[in-house]
């Protein structure tokens, strides 16, 4: 029997309350797979988040995530996950931007957003206006590019490794460490010309007249 746990509150009335409180700051509101999504104007984000925190009781900012849609004019969506402790309810706030338009920082409302915004900046290159310390936080300071962008090469540009020769951490261009293997698809039952691993143990029986192994009681001590 599973342990009892509190269920999240119903979504009934949440969208209506958000529309009334946010007004023209809200672009769209929807519900899917049991979750409420609020799309907010980028320039109105700080005030919209203040209203959600102070008037609708979503006290905690749990996470900030990024999503990349390269085919869109504003390719990035920044997603804020909010939790109401008093209502036991969660919702998501979405804003969109591109590589150059900054998103207003919400560090004035939740100081923890400082690190979360740095993660999104590091992975996607999204700028946050008002963040007092917008630096990389997951990759190294000398890293080039933003790894979570869809157009970022899978191998990256450089690799970070420890050099035994120089006795320090160095950067070097990414190289494939192993050549592409050549595979032989010839079936071993159709006369392959190579010896498979383990075949060396299956030797041909000895010729006639070969000495018979001694029994245990015949071994000279």
Q: What's this model, at a glance?
A:
The protein has 221 residues and is α/β, with parallel strands linked by helices.
Taking all Cα atoms into account, the compactness measure Rg is 31 Å
Shape field = elongated
Give the termini separation. Answer: 68 Å
Number of helices: 3
How many strands appear in the DSSP assignment?
9
The structure class reads: alpha/beta
Main β-sheet, spatial strand arrangement: 1-2-5-4-3
Order of H and E elements: HEEHEEEEHEEE
Approximate helicity band: 10-25%
Low-confidence stretches: none
Largest sheet: 5 strands, mixed
Mean pLDDT: 85
Our estimate of the beta-strand percent is 25-35%
What does this structure look like?
- The protein is of the alpha/beta class.
- The chain is 14% helix and 25% strand.
- It has three helices and nine strands.
- The chain has helices at residues 14-22, 45-54, 113-124; strands at residues 26-32, 35-40, 60-68, 76-84, 89-97, 103-104, 128-129, 158-163, 168-173.
- A five-stranded mixed beta sheet has the order 1-2-5-4-3.
- The radius of gyration is 31 Å and the shape is elongated.
Secondary-structure blueprint:
Layout: H1 14-22, E1 26-32, E2 35-40, H2 45-54, E3 60-68, E4 76-84, E5 89-97, E6 103-104, H3 113-124, E7 128-129, E8 158-163, E9 168-173
Parallel strand pairs: 2-5, 6-7
Antiparallel strand pairs: 1-2, 3-4, 4-5, 8-9
Family: Belongs to the complex I 30 kDa subunit family.
InterPro entries: NADH_DH_suC, NADH_quin_OxRdtase_su_C/D-like, NADH_UbQ_OxRdtase_30kDa_su
Subcellular location: Cell membrane
